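Protein modeling request. Please complete all fields; requests missing the sequence field cannot be processed.
Requester role: graduate student
Desired output: 3D structure, token encoding
Chains: 1
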Amino acid sequence: MHLIKRLLLLGIAIFLAACGESARMPLPFPTPAQHDLVVLTTPGPLTYISEENGSVSGLEHDLAEAFAQELGVAVKYLVVPPEELATRLTGGDYHIAAAWLSPQPDNAIQATPAIFQTRDILVQREASLPLNKPEQLADKTVHAMAGSRQAANLQALAKTIPGLTIVEVKENDILDLLESLGEGEVNYVAIDESLVDIANQFVPNLRTSLMLSEEQAILWLLGPHPNAELAARASAFAERVQLDGTLARLEDRYFGHVRRLNQADVVKFLGQIETTLPKLRKFFQAAETISGIDWRLIAAVAYHESHWDANATSPTNVRGIMMLTEETADRLKVSNRLDPRESILAGARYINLLKDTLPDEVREPDRTWLALAAYNIGPGHFNAARTIAKQLKADPNAWYEMKRILPLLAKPKYYERLKSGRARGGEAVILVENIRSYYDILVRHEDALPPISARTEGKTGAQGSSPGLKLRR
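Delivered output (473 residues):
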């Protein structure tokens, strides 16, 4: 009897040990037929953004998608709140953790080589006295997002700085917290330095002051027991994207436009949103209903063209809120360019016409940015720039490439060989980048137009909550 009992207990122990070993086994290598690439991430402007139209964007999201495409597999995302991430990292239910992460302190979790470099920084209101050294944090209260690297670094600082209080915020997102800072509800916020330019688009009265950390690597974590082949492939991918232009293109997509507007531009635009936009909103929304273009993008184009002045007229007789040429107005059968309703609808239709002239392989958001460049300099000059791009072995279907090519239209070396002649292509680049920033701001502050079915049922739209979402993919 005792022997049977001992054998039974031994069997149970072996079973439990096997279960524990199984739990530590890495996930199978992703394969097209059987296994997706499992990505652990958190919501945020640098990682994973759920868009109003149901799609997803984000710099690290796009990188993960590029890696999955290289593997030939689909992606399954495990999206968790930042405060839960530390616990999930020790589990074995993901292939890569792509959540703007730095190496773990104990190096217990294997990682790829560094993909980005960043630092933590203190942000405060412009009118407040700047802090220049950590000792000045004594008896101060600093807010940070719960579970963030900034919160962890602040907790470490608090051990040596008397009276430093850290408040970890779980609700809303980092942009909401920064808006609270701008409105004087909090005094100091710790953020990732990569967010500074994005934040300045929405909260123009911020200033950066104290560096809270040395430069730190941003990388992908591969879990405590990674699949060896996948770890090698992910590490090779992380190194390669920094050399082949993939990373530069993605950084341009998310950050390339955010340094164009200065503080005065943003303050003026935010004021116009409050005072002038309400009178025009119905015209922009009607144009979306007819054209399918997000009304906030149409409004951003109109603001850049005329600052929402329905009577605007240039020395070359370009007129109206959308600054239409007489030729374009005639083509679109506009009877009065100074009528905001007519002008806005015609401008939206013209953007669609320009998008339709681009090859089918041009994807969004590049398709829209390229069309807006053509809106500024005209289809003839724009097509000439595409010809130059092809001659210089640049991709004429990529906004990242055309930003470099368009200014060449003003150089005799190039325009003297073109039938269309000289053009201010550099101005077209500035126009598009400014419109991108105005659009980001409008998405943050203005509701999306609900689907027609929802409007029919009398429903209201969801508040836009993340910058530049609808055209990210």
